[in-house]
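Bug report

Summary: structure tokens for ATP-binding cassette, subfamily B differ between web form and batch submission.
Environment: batch mode, default settings.
Steps: 1) Submit the sequence below via batch. 2) Compare with the web form result.

Sequence submitted:
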Amino acid sequence: MGKSEDNQSSRVRIPGHRSHKGFQDVEKPREGKKTFGRLFGYFGEEKWMVFGLLSAVVLTVVCSVYAPSLQSHAIDRIAEGSFGRVPPILAIMLGVYLILGICTLFQNLISNRLSQRIVRRIREELFDKIVNLPIRYLDTHSHGDIMSRMTNDVENISSTVSQSLTSFISGIFTVIGTVIMMVWFSWELALLSCTTVILTVLATKYLSKAMRKSYRKRQALLGQLNGSVEEMVIGFKTVTAYNRQRKAMEGFDATSDELTRVSILSDFLSGAMGPVINSINNIGFVIIAAFGGYFAINGYISIGVISAFIVYAKQFGRPVNEIAQVYGQVQTAIAGAERVFAILDEMEEDKGGEKNMDSSKGVITFKNVNFSYNPEKRVLHNFNLEIFAGHKVALVGATGSGKTTVVNLLMRFYDTDSGGILIDGVDIRDIDCNELRRNTAIVMQDTVLFSDTIRNNLKYARPDATDEQMEEAAKMSNCHNLIKRLPDGYNTLLTEAGDNLSQGQRQLLSIARAVLADPRILVLDEATSSVDTRTEKHIQDAMVNLMKDRTSLIIAHRLSTIRDADLIVVLDQGRIAETGNHMELLNKKGPYHDLYMTQFAGNQI
């Protein structure tokens, strides 16, 4: 995948273009049985709750299949004129129905609790996976689709476990129990009643196949729609500035219309399942009425048995109908689980390495580094550079020359295709990734602040820092007075990632956070690009103290900010064009001279 080297953190795809990037896994459906088996594995750690749920289900089924037989006996006693034997039967029926109601209540309570515990574990595993995914994955997949898997897909699993799955299990047990009782009373009438099962199975098979395909497509489109909305919100100013609102609406409407069409089809198929099964069940009632009456007239069965069979036929059809209806919901959950498991199966970022940086001096060496974001276009070509401890090295060059890629590789956001990066002679792949980043502070071109207090945002890089250390870092970054002027000072809550501050103020806070981290290696990715000249001067003064005795790597567009750099490296299409200090490069009259003159044409050098 191609990548803008100097602005990759702010990439925004303008809504209105029908991109299917990031949905490949969904378009290649997995084995439904395999996914269901994996999802069922989460029940293993909730054995006691599962046992309690199954016990409640079994008691519910036993009561529901036993009650019609009591009704049959009561009707037969009335037909015989034995009214004195009816009250005890009715008392038992009352007790059975009371137990049935209590078990149903416990069944609902346990299933809801079980679903929340399982879904909590899935959600935690998914979030843990997301925060440990490689940067490459997040750069090449729709953020909206990832969030859709965390919210919509997980919620589908939750509702299925709490509602549909219990109905599914209860329905199966009810069907089995009902068939046993029907055979017990009259195997001939039971056999005739079960002829409708074949029609039910065929209808369920063909409708569920269509539903499964439709639900997968709906989930994919829902993820795509969420991605479009997320990009629209992030890039709203860009969309508005270029008057692309109508184009954005057209793209959104196209996806929304397709989602609507697929959703209507999905709901139609799901809704059609019930009426189809009901029609088949009604055929079963006709069979019972006709043949049951014939058997009763000829003395094969009693009137009470006919009454029980009518109840059993309805009781047999109801769970079959429910199973057919919840099957669609189960398919939705399985489709969502496939998408969730697709992320859980992704390889996590390799943070391997057992060496630490306790005695690190900060000498950085790039040796024969080659790198590409996709095989078709190499970004760095045989890149060699040595940065001495405590030196300040600036990377300059045109957009796309590879400057930010150098930083990405140094931070191990990406790994090199070949060659290596060494710190004090140790390959960074042998250094624990957390240790590497703990000793390297980075100030990005696009500031990232969280919807939290200024205090917590500054301490994000160093949670154990004292308030005195935090305030000292703010003073070094010339933002202490700014913070004190805010209504709640350091306890001021930043809204929408700092939207209640100006871009320059957010940049100052980001720099203060890097100061508080007290790193051995400092990376400034055009850290002063969003501030005015006066603020830039304050920041540069603070940077002098910050960069003292630290290895510093600076990506710069404003060449005026790097005149005092120990070494300036000019990049051109992933290669080092020339190196030297400010005056040496000007005297060479090469690419740096041309860049400088472009920015300061007419000014005295």
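Above is the batch result. After comparison, the two runs are identical; trailing whitespace caused the diff. The chain has three domains: 32-344, 350-439+521-533+551-605, 446-518. DSSP finds 20 helices and ten strands in the chain.
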